[in-house]
Amino acid sequence: MTPHPEQGEHTVSNRTMELVVAGLFVVLSIVVMYDNWRIGARWVEDGPQAGYFPFYIGLIMFIASAVTFVTNLAATAGGSASFVDRSQLKQVLQVLIPTIIFVILIGFIGIYFAAAIFITFFMSWLGKYRLYRIVPIAIAVPLFLFFMFEIWFLVPLPKGPVETALGY
User: Fold this and answer.
1) Do both 54 and 30 map to the same domain?
2) Where in the sequence is the domain holding 67, given as residue range(s)?
3) Residue 85 is inside which H or E element, if any?
4) CA-based end-to-end distance of the chain
């Protein structure tokens, strides 16, 4: 298949991506249904057990995903259209990879310092902002989030060694 002149090289087809995503949702829905059946997904004399509603949400998700999977498996036309070209994939990966690193960092240094690093990285790398604009935002946003969640709403978020040393 030759790509359009304005598009980059073909990477993966729409049909393939729809099959992969539908397949992943089938697996996820089976896990949801199994686990909720295990904890109790029946209607008992005093009402539904803890897993009753989540089990049926999983069942609905399973049916929808299975129908999507089978429909795309049986489809013969339109399946070769490109899902994403290389330039679009590069843009997605420029955001996805740092976001994955951010999530991993949360487990080691807490959400607030990870957010400061994340904001600093994106503002400098993709935004091309100067340091005098980056630093106040990279400090103010996590501080605001800390006060909002930890102090005002009393909702604890993952903290790292600095917050622990400060008694939070």
Assistant:
1) yes
2) 10-80
3) strand 82-85
4) 57
